[in-house]
Design goal:
This protein has 146 residues and is an all-alpha fold. The chain has a single domain, classed as Alpha Horseshoe (Serine Threonine Protein Phosphatase 5, Tetratricopeptide repeat). It is built from five helices and no strands. α1 packs antiparallel against α2. It is globular, with a radius of gyration of 16 Å.
Amino acid sequence: MPAAGSTALPRLSEPTSVLYYNDQPPEMIFYQGLARLKLGRSEEAHAIFARLVDYGKAHLNDEVRVDYFAVSLPDLMVFDADLNQRNREHCHYIMGLGYLGLGDLPAAEEQLEAVLALDANHLGAILHLRMVSRDHSIPDLGDLSS
């Protein structure tokens, strides 16, 4: 019988663009890494967090174009004014999550603040920035209420 958590599809821990609704949300990847830390699988967790940072760095300045024939575009993105800005937000966000998981709190804070500079209402950045600012440690996962 395989170990707990070992049956997850490998592609589910790979970061992707934010264009399509069926792309894996970066928060899911981040929390997969935290779960692996909790299970004592720190090398796997480190690899997940490093992939988030690497993906963000590699794609931060991409020129994004919409495939107008794609069937999985969310939120009428066909009419979205600036896909490149949305891409930059996404890349800063996943880098912030990656750095947070790696324990590089100053870098995580810098990236999450960059997200908020582009979109002050980015809920993911707001919530995860609270993890950075709370005594500069990752809190118990059930303790995000204050």
